[in-house]
Structures are given as C-alpha cells and as structure tokens.
Structure prediction request, 329 residues.
Amino acid sequence: MSNIRWGIIGTGRIAVTFAEALAGCEEAELYAVASRSEERAAAFAEKHGFSKAYGSYEQLAADPEVDIVYIATPMSSHYDDTLLCLRRGKHVLCEKAAAINSRELDDMITLAGEKNLFFMEAMWMKCRPVYLKAKEWVKRGSLGDIKCVKADFCNLVKYDPKDRLFAPECGGGALLDLAVYPLTLAVDFLGNYPCEIISSANIGRDGVDLSNSIMMRYQGGKYASINSGFQQPCRNGAAIIGTEGSIIFGEWFFCTCEAVLYDRDGNELERAAIPNEINGYEYEIYEAHRCIRAGLRESTLIPHSGTKAVMSIMDECRSQWDMYYPSER
Ligand SMILES: NC(=O)c1ccc[n+]([C@@H]2O[C@H](COP(=O)([O-])OP(=O)(O)OC[C@H]3O[C@@H](n4cnc5c(N)ncnc54)[C@H](OP(=O)(O)O)[C@@H]3O)[C@@H](O)[C@H]2O)c1
Prediction:
C-alpha cells in the first residue's frame, strides 16, 4: 500500500508538534509544507524532513502529489485555506476550532461533500485511547444515565496583541481556542442539542473573550458546566457523572493519558493509563488514514454533526456576549 502524502499549511506552534507526530506514523509521508514566506517553508521542511517547501498556500494546494492537507493556521484562515485545498481535490484535516462560525463550517462541509473528499476537524482528544476507553465504559452502562459533564480549560497567557489568541482578525478568544474542548466533551456525552445555554464572558480590550463560563441544560435534568480562559492557571480536570457512576479524567483532560471509572459510592472500579505512542497527535493521523483508505468522507470518531453542534453553541455564546469577528460585521 502506498504511503499517504501529507501537506501542512502554516508553520507555527502546532505545525511543529504535528510534524513530529507525522514523522513517527507508519504510512505517512512528510511530503510538503507551505508558508506565507519561502524562507519559513524551507526552514521547516529542512528541520522536519519534508520533501517540498512552498512559499504560498496556493502552490501546495496545486501540487498533484499531495493527498491530504493539515491546516495549521489561525481560526479566521481555516475557511479560505480549507476551501482552497478542497477545490484542488485534497482531503483536509483542519485544526480546531474548524471555523469561526457555523456559516463558514457549513460551506466547508458542503464543499467537501460535493467534491467527495474527506474533511475532519483535528479534535485529537476524541481519537485518543483513554477517551475511547471512557466511551467504552459509558457504552457498557457503567455510568447509568449521564446527568452532568464538568470540564475546564484555563491557561495563564501573557497578553501580547500580536498573538493570534488576542487578535479578533485571527478569530482570537478563549471560546474558540480553549472552550471548544470542554464543549466537545459535553456534546459528545450529553448530546448535540442543549435546550438552554447560559453564558458569560470577560471581553478584553481587543474585543475577544479572555475568559468565559458556559452552562448548558439538556432535557431530562442533565447539564454541562464549563469554564475557559487565558487569565488563570488551572488543573483542567473533567468529570462525567451519571446515576450509577462517574468518570474522572486526569489533569489537562483533553490530552491526559489517564481516566478512572468510579461507582456511585465513589469506589474505583477501573483505571485506564495509556501512554502516548508518540506525542498524542498520532491517533488523529491514524484516524485520517483509516478513513481515507476506507473511502470515508467523514470520521466516525469526529463526525461532522458533532463539529457543527459545538460550532452552533459557540455562535450562540458569542451572540449572548455581542462578540463578533471583523468578517462578521
Ligand atoms: N490541537 C492542538 O493541540 C492545538 C494546539 C495549538 C493550536 N491549535 C490550533 O492550531 C491552529 C494554529 O495555532 P498555533 O498555535 O500553531 O498558531 P501560530 O503559532 O500563531 O501559527 C499559525 C501559523 O499560521 C500561519 N498564518 C497564516 N495566516 C496568519 C495570520 N494572519 N496570522 C498569524 N499566522 C498566520 C503562520 O504560518 P506561515 O507564516 O508560515 O504561513 C503561522 O505560523 C489554531 O487553529 C489553533 O486553535 C491546536
């Protein structure tokens, strides 16, 4: 079987981590990288062992040898970069948050469908073995009826107006960067359609949220409670609590290698401790490979419906905060 030839668009922080995972994955060929700068592309290709370096995203998308493109640019660029690659017949693995709003995401998913190409949000958490173990516990009924998901993702980030995290024109803010993880967890375990969303945010001087708190109520007395932000260090735990038991993920729940299953009296029933094979990003790469080999257009682990549900909740939160990105005004 021939290798799958990867292209990467963008040479920032996550592109480096992803390239390190790609280098250790069987069947992955580190084929091409593109940057807005020829020098940065060449330096990245040299350092990480890519065969081709392009000084524009268009050039990479036009290369007929590229099978799939990993989009590692700021949120506000995902739409254009994804459409560019899909139009050129490439499968796409797009970083989180997949877009800045549902309108963009719908267009991206629609075009992928029209072109019969694979499209997946790089929500790596959902491909990780410990997460899949938690899903297995739930499927076999160990939690009974799930009543509550609690999760936080907070960081202490030094303010830098040039950092995409604080820049509205880059799709900045804690919601799209951090809350997307706990929201994905909540949606995966409670459902795509909360019946009520109550949220609040601290909006910084640049017009994006520095921290936020989200409460979602679901039918049947279920709820999710979520905090995220750039202003406080946090242990970033997560819990899924049901009538018969609970699952507690290790700290930094979205990338933890540990989860524990408890019964309803708090006795430990089972513990999953599964070290990464590489750096944790390999599992989303394996999933993309599996889907492409099987001719799937969306992942069963990260279905479009879940990505869309989270995006529509984020739209609703921003509308509650009157927070809009420049392209939405
Ligand atoms: N899965 C994860 O664990 C994880 C972790 C961090 C980030 N992410 C996601 O990955 C994406 C990139 O995050 P990052 O932290 O890697 O960002 P970053 O360090 O700022 O890098 C983004 C790269 O995108 C390119 N780019 C294109 N247009 C840009 C613009 N207008 N401003 C700045 N850069 C631009 C740049 O590459 P060139 O100049 O070479 O073109 C830049 O190096 C985001 O969607 C983020 O949410 C995911």
Summary: The chain has two domains: 4-124, 126-280+309-328. Residues 237 and 251 are 5 Å apart (CA to CA). The longest strand covers residues 209-218.
